[in-house]
Amino acid sequence: MNGVGVPFFLPKSATTDIGLAIENTYLKAVRNAFLELFPDYAFVNYHARSLEGKLQVAPGSRHERLLERMGKSPVVGYYFPCLLEYSVPAALEQMQSLPDSLILAGGFDTCATFIACPDLLLRTDEYPPLLWLAGLSGERESIGYHFEAYGYNLTFNRRAHFGQAAEYWACGLVALG
User: Fold this and answer.
1) How many domains does the chain have?
2) Which of 30, 38, 90, 123 pairs with 154 at a CA distance of 20 to 30 A?
C-alpha cells in the first residue's frame, strides 16, 4: 500500500467477448479521458485489427473473479502497477505466492484505471513502464497486449514478449473492494 494505487469503478456487465468490449467501449473511454486531460497529446491504438475473440482470461491469473463480479454487480477496486520488470509468465507464476485476495490485472480494470487516472504513465523525468494486460492471454502464447507512453502520448498495442523480462515492463495487481 506504500506504492502507487489507483481506485477504479466498473459497471455491471455480463461480457461474452472481452476483446470486443475493450475495443468498442473501454479503449474509446480511455481515449476520451486522456484527451480531456491532455488535449495537446494523443491516444493512439496501434492495434489495427479487431480484438474480437482474441482475449481470454490467462490461467492462474485469478482474473475470472473480476469478470464474475462484473456479471453480478458494479465493481470497485484498486489497481497497483507493482510487478516491475516481470515477464508475463513470471507475473502469472508469482500469483501462486501472493495473497488470494489479489488478482492479475487484465483489460477492463486497466482501462478503468486509465479512465480514472489518465496521467498514470506520464513522466517528464524518466521513462515510464509499459503496462501489460497480463491477466489476459492473447491469440498466441508469446503475444501480449499493453498500454505504453510514447513521449507524452498514450498508446495501446500488442507485441511479442517471448516470456522475457525487461526493465521497463510492469504488470498490475488488483484488489477488489
Assistant:
1) 1
2) 90
**Cell reading at 47:** 492495434
Q: Establish if 1 belongs to a structural domain.
A: no
Centroid of chain to Cα 171: 8
Per-residue pLDDT tens digits for 81-97:
999 999 999 999 999 99
Beta strand pairing call for 43-45 and 153-160:
parallel
Cα pseudo-dihedral 87, 159, 162, 141, rounded to 10: 100
* pLDDT tens digits, 42-61: 999 999 899 999 999 999 99
Asked, for residue 98, whether it belongs to a domain, the answer is: yes
Q: Could you give the angle at the alpha carbon of 81 between the alpha carbons of 35 and 24, nearest 5°?
A: 45
Beta bridge partners of 144: 159
Closest CA to 118 of 152, 84, 85: 152
CA dihedral 110, 70, 30, 50 (to 10 degrees): 90
Residue 93: give the domain boundaries.
6-176
* DSSP string across 85-152: T--HHHHHHHGGGS-TTEEE--HHHHHHHHHH-TTTT--SSSPPPEEE-TTEE-SSTTEEEEEEEETT
